[in-house]
Amino acid sequence: AANAVDPTGPASSHASGSPQFADSVSDPIDARHSEHIAAEQAALEIVRSIAEVARAGFISRRELVESFTSDEFGPEFASETGQQVDTLLMELGARGVDDAGLVLHEQPITVTSTDVADGVQVETWSVLIVAVSDLGPARQVWRTITLDMVDVDGAWLLDGWESEIGPTPAPPAEGLIDTADSVIDVLAWRRVDGGEG
To answer: What is the pTM of this model?
Structure first.
């Protein structure tokens, strides 16, 4: 589970030994908590947007990536993402599959964050669904993504990205696998975070 923080404000230790709580926005502890929340929200939106990045064309993909990355990291992330998308599309092409039928959706499940020298490091555990119409069942990829977030003129931007597979829950032994089209149908529903499917 995510390391949830009490919205009333985190406790801090004082000389008296009794916990004190932040009671104003100007309190440094409360301000830091707010920064973590803002960095986490920005990071989660970036993870959710990966499907949109993958669907975008070369030029629009670079522009989209630049909208949520730092100037230093943007070109590197756009290049790496483009290479991964191109590899996937080539594999589909080799199977004679039209990439127009490709559906991607990534949903963060939990999130936590910590202070680092240059900003806030956010970790999120998410599930990525990959489905191609008429090409067998949809696939799921559980992964943990680490995003280095930096505050640039009041906006939290991505300055580093790493992902690793897992932890992956086991499917039920008696579970049935549905067709890709069945999964694509429900992925088209409205996202619970308010975005489009």
So the answer is: 0.78
**Do 30 and 140 touch, CB atoms closer than 8 A?**
no
52-104 per-position pLDDT tens digit: 988 888 788 899 999 999 999 999 999 998 888 888 778 877 777 666 778 88
From the CA atom positions of the chain, what is the Rg in Å? 20
In terms of Cβ atoms closer than 10 Å to its own Cβ (0-12, 13-18, 19+), residue 187 is middle
> Which residues are CB-contacts of 184 (< 8 A; sequence separation ≥ 6)?
103, 131, 133, 138
For residue 29, give the 3-state DSSP assignment: helix
Beta strands in 8-85 (DSSP E): 11-13, 19-21
Mean pLDDT value across the chain: 82
Q: Answer for the pair 40, 153: CB distance below 8 angstroms, yes or no.
A: no
Question: What average pLDDT score do residues 153-172 get?
Answer: 94
d(CA 118, CA 97): 44
pLDDT digits (tens, 9 = 90+) for 25-51: 456 778 888 999 999 999 999 999 988
Looking at the DSSP bridge assignments, the partners of residue 115 are 120
